[in-house]
Amino acid sequence: MAGDHPFSASVFIGTSLDGFIAREDGDIDWLTSRGAAAGGDLGYQDFIDGIDTVVMGRGTYEPALAYDPWPYEDKHVAVLSTTLDAGTDPRVTVHRDLDGLIRGLTERGTKSVYVDGGQTIRTFLRAGLVDEITITAVPVLLGTGLPLFGPIGGDVLLVHRSTRVYGAGVVQSTYGVLRQQDHPANGREGAC
Ligand SMILES: NC(=O)c1ccc[n+]([C@@H]2O[C@H](COP(=O)([O-])OP(=O)(O)OC[C@H]3O[C@@H](n4cnc5c(N)ncnc54)[C@H](OP(=O)(O)O)[C@@H]3O)[C@@H](O)[C@H]2O)c1
Q1: Cα(74)–Cα(129) distance, rounded to whole angstroms?
Q2: Among protein residues, the one whose CA lies closest to atom 24 of ligand 1
Q3: Which residues belong to any copy of the Bacterial bifunctional deaminase-reductase C-terminal domain (predicted)?
Q4: Domains of the chain
């Protein structure tokens, strides 16, 4: 249900087979170890080369502070948070809500956004702002953890674009998000 917006927004995220992006305590070793075992970067570099802006929630930003070097050097980084001190990290801009974020991105002339973090992805999905989703699923069941998906206010129709099987049983699938006017229920010929 992607609505009209001046930029494209893509999700590129790793999950357990049961749909978690991190353990409850934020641990993602179960993901990084299997990603490494699969070999290569699983398409990440090609993906991020095509985007100009990373949008993430505080829950993703805070662990990323430990990365050395900072992995988003040539990107604009916008963080969604109601609690983070704005202005303490010159590498990022902090936005208190989605409306302010969208205004900021639009004013900057943003063209392509990488949306990261479970809550933030769901915020974008609810607003109809996601255009493409790539999920890299690693073969492990965690049973519990921080979910990728949850309530999003209605069905989001997807179109399968590709699936690639990497080593170590890592399976990566990409889906396009159908825009409202393309929904079969919205008057296209042959709709039932
Ligand atoms: N598996 C992967 O590929 C992958 C990728 C990215 C992250 N992760 C992991 O996932 C975990 C973080 O995920 P998460 O589900 O906690 O989500 P998140 O979106 O990274 O962070 C959630 C926080 O973002 C802020 N936020 C989100 N939506 C907002 C909105 N509409 N308005 C204002 N603020 C908003 C809130 O911060 P405040 O509480 O400050 O308001 C919220 O607590 C981390 O452990 C990270 O390492 C894994």
Answers
A1: 23
A2: 57
A3: 12-171
A4: 8-14+31-170+181-186 (3.40.430.10)
Of all protein residues, the one whose alpha carbon is nearest to atom 37 of ligand 1 is 81
Q: What is the pLDDT of residues 54-86, one digit of tens each?
A: 999 999 999 999 999 999 999 999 999 999 999
Both tokens assigned to 7: 């930029």
Give the global pTM. 0.94
Question: CA-to-CA distance for 140 and 85, rounded, in angstroms?
Answer: 36
Average pLDDT over residues 151-157: 96
CA distance 34 to 169: 9
Secondary structure of 19-46 in the HEC alphabet?
CEEECCCCCCHHHHHHHHHHCCCCCHHH
Give kind and range of the element (H or E) at residue 141. none
CB contact at 8 A, 189 and 145: no
Residue 132 φ/ψ region, left for φ over 0, alpha for ψ in the -120 to 50 degree band, beta for the rest: beta
Ligand 1 pocket, residue 119 CB under 6 Å: yes
Dihedral over Cα of 29, 34, 35, 40: its sign: positive
Q: Looking at residue 184, what is its pLDDT? A: 61
pLDDT at residue number 4: 66
Give the model's pLDDT for residue 40: 86
- Tokens read off for 59: 């829950």
